[in-house]
Every structure is written in structure tokens, then in C-alpha cells.
Amino acid sequence: MAGGIVGEFFDLKAGTEAELLAMQCGDFYEFFAEDAETVAAELDLKVSQKSSHGSAYPMAGVPVDDLTPYVRALVERGYRVAIADQYETDGGHAREIRRVVTPGTLLETGDADAQYLAALVDSEGTYGLAFADVTTGRFHVATAADLEGALTGLYRFDPVEVLPGPEVRADDTVLDRVRSNTDATLTLHTAEAFAPGRARHRVDEQFGQEAVDSLGVDDPAVRAGGAVLSYIEETGAGVLASMTRLQRHGAGEQVTLDGTTQRNLELTETMGGEAEGSLRSTIDHTVTSAGRRMLTAWLTRPIRDRAELGRRQAAVEALTEAAMARDRLREVLDGTYDLERLASRAASGSADARELRAACETLRALATAAAVVAETPRLADSPLAAVLDRPDREAAADLADRLDDALVEDPPGTVTQGGLISPGHDQTLDAVIDDHEAVKTWLEELPAREKRRHGITHLTVDRNKTDGYYIQVGNSETDTVPAEYEHIKSLKNSERYTIPELEAREREILRLEERRHELERELFERLRERVADRADLLRSVGRALAELDTLASFAVHAVRNDWTRPELHEGQALDIEAGRHPVVEQTTDFVPNDLSMDAARRLLVVTGPNMSGKSTYMRQAALVTLLAQVGSFVPARHARVGLVDGIYTRVGALDELAQGRSTFMVEMQELSNILHSATERSLVILDEVGRGTATYDGISIAWATTEYLHNTVGAKTLFATHYHELTSLADHLDRVENVHVAAEERDGDVTFLRTVREGPTDRSYGVHVAGLAGVPDPVVDRSREVLDRLREEKAIEARGSGGEESVQAVFDLGSGQFRAGGADAGGSDGASSSDTATADGGAGPEDGDGSRDPLRDTYGEDVEAVLDALAELDVNETPPVELMSRVQEWQRELE
Ligand code: ADP
Fold first, then answer.
1. Deepest of 311, 316, 495, 502, by most Cβ within 10 A of its Cβ?
2. Is 844 helix (H, G, I), strand (E, B) or coil?
């Protein structure tokens, strides 16, 4: 074991869970051994060798003042970094870990987005969640009735670090689901922190007994909350004081939006993972980071509180109509400081004077904004006035005055070098400043005086670290210096001297400087504490300004894109007149479409050729609903939106599967979640569900799903499918209707009209598109033949190489089996297109007589082998791509 400094490093490292340790050694923080190599590789630092007790260890270091950006970069890469500070003791110095910086406790974030630290506990199948943003002091808790609900909650807050509780850790399946639902770092925080008694005590201490009571003492959310609090304390972020309000997220008022749906609807990033092209980036015109954060929170957490939505809408409407005032308000907001973040930084003691100065300007912005609103009748009469009245404006003005009074106009970025506090703020400081300034003036005047007195022209007075203050005289004049000049150093072209008077002033100036810096720092810290005490005020002003920014952003987008205020109601109907897709309309000449759904017309089967616009149409319905439920205007000529309690989507499109983004199992898990969770007040979007498996399975699942949604769940559902069979459901189920996206075929070209019409499509354009794409004529012609045959007979024949007419086997879609002989394939069982399955879903494919003997007799062993392999293949477990290659293989074997 190494001794000395490296030994100390190892000892400290052994006592922390952090992956990396930065240990202060004088003016540097050093990483040793493996840590040095990791850090060097991540951050491009130089590694040197440190010899210690006969061994050499890799060492990498950063200057003390530069630690923050390095730690931030490491933490953003997912590392937890322990920081051991050096402090003086009687006998020398010692080191101690006082802070562990982790993704969820990083205060110096460079990102405007919320940064949640989460805990998840499982209490006999009920889940408790807590989310804390140390950068703003926000603290939320939620309870979920099952794992799906818990995962939805996690996805909603998108935490950067998750503390799984003891039960969650013990269950691999749960842990895997958590991992696949978040990019967060998982941290194993001590199990005791999750213990009900201890956690309750922590929550009580932080938020008061009422908070615990309002949650219910047995609520697992209390356990999660307690664990988060203890973790924040243990990592030493020092921000607990800024967490004053516990917000509960009930299932009641929110709209369920699971992770899959957020991804599918591309709310904050596209399927490809880009921010650009997402709904948020399209509609975001906010001018502050707090506004942007609020916009994101609203978009990812829509609500169904009609009164609140009505207020937001009315404010947006007023802002759309008051163009000048809107511009003026956005100017006022632009450049304001993030007060929510400041509240945390003041509490943790990391805010500097520039930040407090900026906070002062921002507090003043509230008054300016309120004045603009008051002067504009259209706004004064709107709910916007109430938004700006929410914070205590008088207290805000007081705090701004106080900051104004204390701080100089343009303070420096460091708090240790003085120059922060404005004159007149504190008498003691003023006296020191006066003395300090007097000595400084004396020093400034010294060169002129000495030049005059001794007739020397090349004389300067300056100071440096080694020599202190000195008088410097050029070589040509050193003969004329008076005797009282005491020589201290020779340089190439000059000599340095000092005089007793200068030495005395030097001592004085150092004393005064130190005193001044100390006093200023003390005053500043007191001021910062006072600001930290007003965390609630800062947060409420910050929130009001952020809300103004978000509402103005909605208004800007509405005006620029001709969006309208949707009518909200509690009924089931969703009526969209000339609706558009909010993102696609930005880049295309969009063809608007209508949509009409209600309790009597609640399930629409959407058909149409590939690429005709089915997905776009359905997503548009979901996005219009979502936008309406965040309080925004919507892309439509007119919309009436019945408030929903959840939006669920499932996309089973083949390209998703092929790109490995999904598997059939995942598709079915998601479908299962929808069928369990959706209610008659939900909106469900299914895009090609069942495509990840064999056709027969797929149709059956799609069919049964449709029936279940229609009969049992009763959710408003849009279901796009390429299974034409489903269109016949409309004949059997009352509330199912068909719509299709029209396409036109003219002169051999398919033109997509992008118009949605009533009724099913009459044909599939797939074969046609194959032709357009250059698939050889014989294949296209043959496909057409097969297609026609299928339409007529519901049977696919497998064709051998023998010649045009030699049909070798017929796969009967009615029975799901091969039939012998082809000549009579059409007539025998006369299956018609609508009775392949019944609307009740009762009748599966009939079993026929089950014998394959005639085939064996007729076609021999090769064919038999293929048929056996086919019979054994488990379609549900075989990925589609593999299925295709197996079929190709069999085709080869049959040849
Ligand atoms: P499908 O789901 O039928 O395969 P998509 O919805 O993916 O088709 O649409 C295919 C393309 O058509 C998209 O790239 C989209 O930009 C364009 N599109 C869809 N609907 C419209 C519309 N109403 N107006 C203009 N372009 C549209």
C-alpha cells in the first residue's frame, strides 16, 4: 500500500462511492493512479508521474480555480466526482471529502433544461417517486399504482440521475425497465435512507409535518422524497435551504403521456434523437432559459384542468392581439436572469456579485412588464395581469433596491478581490475605502513627485509579487538617484529601489487591501444570505416571468402560423376543421384535413397507400389535442377538443423494426400497456400494430385489439393499418368508421392527394409502387396476378419452377394451411373477403383436416422438409428480417 500523498488519496477513495476523486494539493486538484488515466483520457489532460514511497503513479491535475469546468465535463459524461479539499490544522493541513458532484447534484450546469435527481421505491407494487432539481430548488413527488405508471412518471421528468430503492434494486426486471426508460445514471444510495421512518423524518424536517400528512404517512412517495433529501445532503451540494415547497403530482389532473408516446410524437426530440425538428424546437420562441424550461414542462406534462387551460388560452389570445405590447414584453424579458436557478446558487453560496446584480435587474423587469400590461387595455383585462400579480411585487422591488444599493454597477466575477460593494453602503467599509484610496492616490502621485524632486525622467513605480512596491530608474539616470534610495535589484536596462516611506505605505496598502477585501466579502456574503432567504420570492418572480415568456411564445407562434384558439369541452368529441401537423407544415405545402370523432364514431380505421400521409394525419390529431391541453393555440381553422386523460401511441411500422428500434415483444408490451391503461376519455393512436409478426398473427392481433378498444375500453382511437381486412369491421361494429388518405392513379403515376376521405381505400398501391421503383416487369406482373387471386380467393399459391401452369401448393388464407393441387383452389371453400374472421373475434382459422400426407405423397421429401420447418417455426419469436430470409431459403429449396 502506498503511503504519503498517494496513500492518502487511496484512503479517501476507499471511503466514497464516487468513480473519481479530485484531491486538493496546494494550488491544484490532483487525480492519481487509474483516476488520473480516466480523467486524462476524457478531458485531454496531461499525465505525469508521481513518485511516492518507491513507486510511481500516474497523476493529472487542474488548478484550483479551474476545477468547476472540469468537474462539470466529467459529471456530464456520467461520472460521480468526489472532491477532497485541503484545510489548515494546528499541525499543518488535512484533507476531507466535502462534496460529491453527481449528475443530479451538479450546480454549475451549463444547460438550461431542468436537471432532475429522482428516487424510485417499490412498496408492494405501489411506486413512490420523488424528483428534485438542485439548480432551481424544485421538488416533486408522485405515487404510481403500477410499474407502468412509475415509468411514465420517470419519463415525464427525464431525470439525469436515479436512486433506485432497495426493492427496485433487488428486481432485475424492474431495474431493466428503468434502465431502458431513462438515460439517467443509476446510483445506489444507502438503503437506510429509504426506510419509512427515517424518510418520513427527513421530509418532515424539510417541508414540515403538513407535507407528510398531506401525502399520507404510508405513501411510498414519502420514502422516495426522504431518500432524495438525504442524498442531496450527503453529496454536500448545500442547496437544501432552497427547497421549500413540495409539489405533489396526482394522477387526477394530469394527462398520461408515456415514454413511447413522447418519443413517437417527437415532443422534445425527433425519433433520430435530434432536438431540431421536434415539436418543442418548432414552437419555441421563448427568450429566456426559464421560459424554455417551462415550455418543456408544459409540453411534456399536459393537464386537463379546464379553468387553468382557459386562463392560459385567454392570455395567449390577448397577446396575439396586442402585437406592440407583446414585442415590448419580450424585449423586457430578453436578457433577464434565471431567478429560479439563482435561488439555489444563493443558498449554496455559489452565486457571485454579477449574478446578484443580474437578479436585481430581473426583479425590476417584473415591474416593467407589469407596467406594460397595465398600460395595454387588451392585456390588462386578460389573465396575464394575474400572472404578474402573483409574486409579491412590493417585496420584489424592495429586494431589488437593496441589491442596487449594495452592489456596484458592474461588479467583477470574483468575490475575493473587492470592488463589489458600492460606496455609501457601509460606513466601516467606506472608511477603509477612503484610506485605501488615499494611499493609492499617494502612490499614483509618487512618480511625478520623485521625478520633479530629483530631476529624473525615466522613473516608474510599480509592484510585483517578489519585490513588492519599487521605484524603477533607467540605467542612464542611475547616477542621479539620491542616497535615500535603497537598491533592491538590477535589471538589464534599469535598477530597482525602495525608500522607507514607500515601504511604510506598502505595509499600509496591503493591510487596507486585505481589510477591504475581507469586509467586502463579508458584506457580500451577508447580502447573498439575505437573497437566499428570499428564495420563495425569487422563485415566484422567476416563475411569473417564465410563464409570461411561455405564453408570449405561444402567441408568437400562433400569429406567425395562423393557429387558432381551440374550444375545450368535457365531452368526447374531437372535431378538427382544416387541421395541420404543427411540424410538417413548416417545411411542406401542407394539405389541411378534417377530423371528426365522438362517442358514436370513436374508432377510425385509417387506410391508404404507403407514404400517403396516414401517420401524419393521426399524429396531427394527437398533437392538436396535446397542444390544446397545454393551453396553446392549434394548427387548424377551427378545433373543438374534448379533454382527454391520456394520449397513447404505438407505432409498429416495419422500418422501426428493421432499424432495431423495436422488437415484436416490445411492441406487444406497449400495446398491452395501452389496453390496460387507456380509458374512454383517452386518445389512442395505433400505427400499423401487429406488423412485427407473421401476417396471420398480425391481422388477428389487430382485429382483436380493435374490438377490445371499441367494446371494452371505449377510447377515441385512430388505427392505421395495411390489413385491408380490418376495414370490414366498420360493417360489424357500430362505432367504427373507415377513412382513407386518397391517392390518384393517372397515366401510370400515383399522385398522393393528402386528402382524407370517408370510407376504406379500394386498393393497395404497393404493387404499383414496386413497378415505379424499377422491380422487373415479370415480378410486378406476377404480383398483380397473385394480388388479384388473393382478392378473389383469399388464398396464396406457392408456385414452383415447373412452368406457367404448374401450381404446386396453395396456402389457404381461410384455413391457414396448404392445400393440395391448384386447379380447383378457387372454388372449393368459397371464402369471401369479409368472413375470414368474424367481428366477434370468436372464430380463428379453422383447422381443416390437418393432414399433410397427400402433399408428401405427391411432392416427396424436399417439400416435406420445408413444410416441417415451416410448421415448426415460431413466428412470434422470429424477427421479421429473419423470417424473410427463411422464406427465401425455402423458396430456394423448393426450386
Ligand atoms: P404513411 O403513414 O401513410 O406512410 P406519412 O404520414 O408518413 O405516410 O406521410 C408521408 C409523407 O407525406 C410525409 O413525409 C409527409 O411530409 C407528407 N405528408 C403527409 N401528410 C401530408 C399533408 N396533409 N400535406 C402535405 N404533405 C403531407
1. 316
2. coil
Separation CA 698–CA 880 (nearest Å): 12
How far is the C-alpha of 485 from the C-alpha of 308, rounded, in Å? 80
> Per DSSP, what are the bridge partners of residue 650?
686
Q: Which amino acid is at 378?
A: R
Q: Is the CB of 613 under 6 A from ligand 1?
A: yes
Mention every residue, 6+ apart, whose C-beta is less than 8 A from residue 445.
none
According to DSSP, residue 252 is labeled: S
Cα distance between the two ends of the chain: 72
Would you say how long the chain is, in residues? 895
State the burial class of residue 236 (Cβ atoms within 10 Å of its Cβ: 0-12, 13-18, 19+).
middle
The alpha helices in 635-734, defined as continuous H runs, are: 654-658, 664-677, 695-708, 729-732
Q: Using CA of residue 396, residue 402, residue 405, residue 407, what is the dihedral sign? A: negative
Say if strands 603-607 and 736-746 run parallel, antiparallel, or are unpaired: parallel
- Report the DSSP pairing between strands 28-32 and 20-25: antiparallel
Q: Which residue has the cell 368459397?
A: 830
> Phi and psi dihedrals of 852, rounded to 5?
-110, 5
In our burial notation (b when 16+ CB lie closer than 10 A, e otherwise), range 868-890 reads eeeeebeeeeeebeeeeeeeeeb
d(CA 456, CA 482): 10
Query: What percentage of the chain has pLDDT greater than the value 70?
Result: 87
Report the candidate in 373, 361, 294, 330 with the shortest Cα–Cα distance to residue 136.
294
- Asked if residue 343 lies in contact with residue 136, where contact means CB atoms within 8 angstroms, the answer is yes
Q: Which residue, chain included where needed, has cell 496591503?
A: 510
Number of C-alpha atoms within 13 angstroms, CB side, residue 232? 34
Q: Is 663 in the pocket of ligand 1 (CB under 6 A)?
A: no
Strands of 646-651's sheet, edge to edge? Answer: 256-257, 646-651, 682-687, 716-720, 603-607, 736-746, 749-758
For a ligand 1 pocket test, name from 583, 584, 594, 756 the mutation site with the most ligand atoms within 8 angstroms of its C-beta. Answer: 584
Residue 302 in grid coordinates: 399536459
CB atoms within 10 A of CB 372: 22
Helix axes 33-43, 67-76, angle to 10 degrees: 90
> What is the number of other CB atoms lying within 10 angstroms of the CB of residue 277?
17
Contacts of 268-274 with C-beta under 8 Å, sequence gap 24+, read 268/296, 268/299, 268/300, 271/661
Q: What is the whole-number distance in angstroms between the Cα of residue 614 and the centre of ligand 1?
A: 7
Q: Which residue has the cell 477612503?
A: 434
User: Cell match 368529441: residue?
Assistant: 573
What Å distances lie between residue 804 and 723, 778, 800, 801, 863, CA to CA?
29, 12, 9, 8, 19
Helix axes 393-406, 500-533, angle to 10 degrees: 170
pLDDT tens-digit readout, 430-482 = 999 899 889 999 999 999 999 998 888 889 999 888 888 999 998 888 888 88
pLDDT at 803 over 60: no
Q: Does ligand 1 lie within 6 Å of residue 718's CB atom?
A: no
**Per-residue pLDDT, 857:** 57
Q: Compute the mean pLDDT over every residue in the chain, rounded to the nearest whole number.
A: 84
* Cell 492616490 belongs to residue: 441
Q: Is the CB of residue 614 below 6 angstroms from any atom belonging to ligand 1? A: yes
Residue 556's SS3 state is helix
- What separation in Å is there between the alpha carbon of 673 and the centre of ligand 1? 27
Which three cell numbers mark 253? Answer: 389532473
* 23-42 pLDDT, tens digit each: 999 889 999 999 999 998 88
